[in-house]
Amino acid sequence: MADTIIASARAVAEVARDHARQGEQAGLLAAPVREALAGTGLLRMGKPGRLGGPEVDPVTAAEAVMAVAEGDASAAWYPATSSTHAIYAHYLPDAGAQEVFDGTAPVACASMPGGSGHFTGDGGLRVEGGRWPWASAAPHADWTGVAMLVDGRSVVAFLPAEDIVVEGGWDALGLRATASGDISVRPGALVPARRLADMTVPAPRHRTPLALFPLTAYVSFAYAAVALGNAAGAVADLLDRATGGTLAESPLAHIELARAEARLAAARAFLLEALDDMWRTAQQGATAGTRARARGRLAMSHAAAEAAAVADAVHALGGGAAVRASDPLQRRLRDAHTVTQHVQVTSRVYPLYGRLRFGAGLDVSALRHAT
Predict the structure, then answer these.
(1) Bridge partners, residue 155, by sequence
(2) Rounded to the nearest 10 degrees, how much is the dihedral formed by the CA atoms of 181, 184, 189, 194?
């Protein structure tokens, strides 16, 4: 399965590279890229194998997202969000998981709690209304999950496209084709119990290794993978344009490229090592402890920061042509710095990790994406 997923990711990357500018101009992923993603397993990597999903381990999933991002970061954002949120299939009733995560289209998910509603007598949820930000891929999604707090319970409700209103408002520096704007829910929409994941006290329905992998770490790591893949793509873009030119003879370019590739390789190795550490614990039937999870979060934030630094260095080597909005190196630069703003990979993890290492008291809710 791992080889198949990686091969699919590389094939999608080629299509994504050819349509990156088109998607950015439209503010939506181009149709050929969406068609290339559909049916590959890349949109539901977290879905359990017992339900026919690929159930891809985190290390392979990260490598797959990186591969797509080498073609285009916005294209990689679709499997990053849809596949990692497919981990909720481990918490949904089987019928709901099968219904939502069929892999034919991305599944959007707005993870910031919002909206209002009430539970029905049969265990379902009536959504009274609400608006949620950061709903990446929602315009192309057949299903969208929205996080809600209802009667003291934390739930993720999955609704079909006809119950979702795409409000838009995605006017961002980078990742423009991800369509990560606002959504609202049609007032009165009914979510049956089979499409409700109760995350108040998260409890997977089966104790498989992937279900035991830290939930929020699985939801988070793909954004760091997008950043690393985008930076690798920037290096490739620079080398493509340098062939036979004066840049290829520049001692400064030689040094800066070598430094950039060393930083990129180190950040990639740290991320994959941290993921593998938590994965091996899950394979042994346990969930990684706070220190391992915090280290994983550190690796994710470090990867995003280092990837942005690599994009900066490569953009500088691109010269005057790279200032144009249509230039691939400028898009790589903007995408890199947009990723660093994502809550899952911001630099705020550094003081939290430092407190933990010095033995100071740590409110684990402040590090919730790593715990």
Answers:
(1) 148, 198
(2) 40
Each residue of 177-200: pLDDT tens digit?
999 999 999 999 999 999 999 999
Element containing residue 356 per DSSP (H, E): helix 349-357
Phi, psi at residue 225, to the nearest 5°?
-65, -40
pLDDT digits (tens, 9 = 90+) for 85-127: 999 999 999 999 999 999 889 999 999 999 999 999 999 999 9
Give the C-alpha separation, 310 to 164, whole Å: 38
Block residue for tokens 């959007």: 108
d(CA 298, CA 187): 40
* Type and span of the H or E element at 154: strand 153-160
Q: Rg of the chain's alpha carbons, rounded to an integer?
A: 20
Give the span between the Cα atoms of 299 and 303, in whole angstroms.
Answer: 6
**Given this model, what pLDDT does residue 365 score?**
56
Q: Which domains does the chain have, with CATH numbers?
A: 209-367 (1.20.140.10)
Q: What per-residue string of b and e applies to 228-252 under the rule 16 or more CB within 10 Å gives b?
A: bbbbbbbbebbeebbeeeebeeeee
Give the pairing type, strands 107-110 and 143-150.
parallel
Q: Is the separation of the CB atoms in 17 and 71 below 8 Å?
A: yes
pLDDT per residue over 352-369, tens digit each?
A: 899 999 988 766 555 444
Q: Sheet containing 131-132: give its strands across.
A: 131-132, 182-185, 164-168
Query: From edge to edge, which strands make up the β-sheet containing 107-110?
Result: 107-110, 143-150, 153-160, 196-198
How many residues are present in the chain? Answer: 371
CA distance 144 to 146: 7
The pLDDT assigned to 371 comes to 38
Nearest CA-CA partner of 24 in 314, 310, 325, 236: 325
| 3-state secondary structure (DSSP) of residue 113 | coil
First vs last C-alpha separation in the chain = 28
Distance CA 184, CA 26 (A): 22
β strands within 54-142, DSSP E = 107-110, 116-119, 125-129, 131-132
Buried b (16+ CB within 10 A) or exposed e, 153-190: eebbbbbebebbebeeebebebbbbbbbbbbbbeeebe
